[in-house]
Task: structure prediction
Amino acid sequence: MRMHQMDGGGGGQVMDLETAVKDGILGGGLVVGGCGGGEKLDLGKMIVELDSIETPPVFICPISLEPMQDPVTLCTGQTYERSNILKWFSLGHFTCPTTMQELWDDSVTPNSTLYQLSYSWFSQKYVAMKKRSEDVQGRVLEILETLKKVKGQARVNSLRELKQVVITHDSAKKTVVENGGVSFLSGLLGNFTTHVVGSDVIGILVNLELNLDAVSNLIQPAKISLIVDILNEGSIDTKMNCTKLIEMLMEGKDSKAEVVSSLSLLVGLLRLVKDKRHPNGVVAGLRLLKRICLYEGLRSSVVSIGAVPQLVEMLPNLNAESLELALYILEVLSTFPKGRLALKECPNTIPTVVRLLMKISKNCTHLALSILWSIFELAPEECAALAVDAGLAAKLLLVIQSGCNPLLKQRSAELLKLCSLNCTDTIFNSKCKLTIAIR
Amino acid sequence: MLCAVIENMGSLCSKQRHSPADFEENAQTAEIERRIELETKAEKHIQKLLLLGAGESGKSTIFKQIKLLFQTGFNEAELKSYITVIHANVYQIIKILYDGAKELAQEEDSSKYALSDEIKEIGEKLSGIGGRLDYPRLTNELAQEIETLWKDEAIQETYSRGNELQVPDCTLYFMENLQRLAVADYIPTKEDVLYARIRTTGVVEIQFSPVGENKKSGEVYRLFDVGGQRNERRKWIHLFEGVTAVIFCAAVSEYDQTLFEDENRNRLMETRELFEWVLKQPCFEKTSFMLFLNKFDIFEKKVLDVPLNVCDWFKDYQPVYSGKQEVEHAYEFVKKKFEELYFQSTAPHCVDRVFKIYRTTALDQKLVKKTFKLVDETLRRRNLFEAGLL
Result:
C-alpha cells in the first residue's frame, strides 16, 4: 500500500501503517469520532486546548499551517482546510497551492479518512492531557492539606514540592488559587518566617494570579520586610522571584509605594543590578528600580543610596534592554535637583553618556541627551568643556543630521549652541570637524 | 677548641638531664603544645557575638535568656543567688518613688503629690534603707509597708511620671509580686531572674551551641555582654576584634526618658549616637549587625498615650490611625528611622554586610528563642556565602 510521504520536512511523524496501528489510532483503542456513548468531544475545542502540542504534519493545512478541522481534498490529491482553500479560490486562483498545478476539476471532496485519523489522534492526546491535569490537581490539593498540618522540615519539603508542581503545570496554578492557597501562603509570611520557608512561598506566589485582596494582604510592612530580607540574602533565583513579586504588588493605581519601598530594598536591588554574572537579574532589578523611580517621593531615597554613580559606572557593560532601563532611571533622577547634582558630581557621567549617543537606539539617544541637558544647566562652562572633550560636538552633529524627530534635533542644536558658547573657538573647532557648516 | 669544649659541655649537660623525671616533663610539654594547637584550631570556628547598646537596653536580659535557652539554665543555687539582687531592686524602686514624690510636691506645689504623715513615716524609713550600701532581707512586715506606700495615690501619681525620674522598667512587676518575694523560703522564678536588674560592669561571656533540628550542624557561639553606661563603654574597644556579629539592643520604649548618667539627655538620642558610632568602627566593616528593637511590650502601651515626637529624632512623626494599627504605624516609623541611620552611617564598601532588624521583647522567652533561631539562620547562610557555597 502506497502512502504519501509527507513533505512536511524533517522531524515530522511519517504516517505509515505500522505506526498508525501501533499507536492505536486506526480503530481499536480510544475515542473514535462520532460513535460511542458519552460526550462527543469537539475537534475544534480539543485543538484549542492542546495548542502547544506538536501536531503531526499530515494533519496540518499547508495554507494556514494550523491543524485542520474540516479537511477537503482537491483533484490533485492534496488536502487543505475547507475554508482556506475556498478563500484561495475566491481570490481567483484555480491552482493547487502546493503543487502549483492548474485544476482540471474544481470540486472539493471531504477527506473523511484524514478527519477520522485526526480526530482519533487529538482525542487520544486530549484524554491523556486531561488525566495528567487531574492528577496534578489532586496532588496540589493533597499538598495544600498537608501544609495546613505540618511544620518544620515537613513543611519545607511540601513547599518545595508545591513550587515544582506549580512551575511545571499551569493547571496547578489555578488549583492553588481556587482553593484558598494564596491567602494560606501569605499567612505563612510573617515576622518569624525562616529564609527557607519564605523563599519557597515567594517562589510559588510569584507564579500565581494575585487579585486585589491578595495584594492588599501582602502589602503589609512585616511581610514586605520579610520579602526584602529574603531578597537580600537569597540565591539569584530567589532574588529574581522577590523582585518580580514586589513588582506584581506595585501594580495598580492604588499601590502604596511608600510601604513597599525601603532603603534596604533599594540597596538590595542595586546589588542585584551590579551582579554581572546574572544579566537576567540585572534586567529584573532595573525594571523594578525604574518603577520605583516613577514615584516622586522615592527618588530622593534612590539617590541617597548612591545609585547614580553606580549606575553610571555600569552603563558601558549593559546590553541594550538594560541600558535603556538604566538611562531611563538616570533621566528621571536628573529631573530633580539632588539627582542632577549627583549626576554632575560623578566624573564619568559626561564621557560615558556622550559615548552612548547614536550608538544603541533612538530612545537611548533621547534619554542620554536629556541627561546631558540637565547636567549642563547646573554648570554650563564646566560641563561643556568636559563634554566637548569627550566628543559631544561631533555626536550632536550626527544627531542633527540623522532622520530623528524634530524635538530631538532641536535639543541637540540647543546643546551644541551651549557648547560653542562655553568653549573657546579653537577647542571647539578642533573637536568638531565641520566648522563653517554649523555656523 | 674552647668552643668545642663548651658545645660538648652543653650537650653533656643536656644528656645528663634525660632521667625518667625529665622524660615525663617533656611528654607534658608536648601534650600542652598539642592542646594549644587544637584549641587554636577550634577557636577559629567559634563565632564571636557582641551584645552592645546603651544602659538598660536589655542586653543582659538577652544574655540571661540565651543562658536559659541553650545552656543548662539556672539551678537552685543560681536562682537563690538572685534573692539579694531582687530585694535590692525593691528597695531601690520604692526609694526612687518616694524621693520623687517629695521632689514633685516641692516643684509643682500641687496636692497631687502630697503625702500624709503616716505615709511620710514609712517613706522616710524605707528611703533610709534604700540609701544604705547593703540591704536587709525583705520581710513580710517590710513588704507590707512597701505595699502601703506603693498603693498611695501620691506615689501612683509619681509613678505615672516615671519617665522623668529614673524608675526602672521592672517596677510594676516587682511591686505586684511583693508578697511572694518576701516569703521566708522564697526561691526566685526564672521570670523573677529575668526582671532582676543589676547594672553590668565589665564583661561577661558564655559559650553555647544552638542545637537545631539537625544536631550535627550546630555552630558554636561565644556571647559577650557588657555594661552600657557611658563609663563602661571604654572597655568595649578591647572586644572589637574578630566579631562575627553585633547584636545591638535599642529600647524603643525609652523615647521619653533620660539617661541615668545624664538627666538632660534623652535616652533614644543617646542610643542613636551610640549606634552611629558603633557602625562606623573600622573593625566592624565585615561584621553582621542585628538590631534588636527591644521593649516592644512597653512601647505598645506607651505610644498611644505619649506621642513619639517628644523625642527630637522623631519630631516629624504624624499619627494616622488609632489602636493597634497606630502602634504598628509608630513602630514602622521608628524602624525606618533606624534603617535610615544605618545607611547614612555605612560607607559604600561596607554596604554588603548583613543588617537585619528584629522586634523583640527580651523578657519573653518564646519570642527570644524564635528571634535567635532567625539570627542563627542568617549567620549560617552568611558563612556559606562567604565560603562561596551559596
User: Anything to note?
Assistant: The CA atoms of residues 86 and 196 of chain B lie 6 Å apart. DSSP finds 15 helices and six strands in chain B.
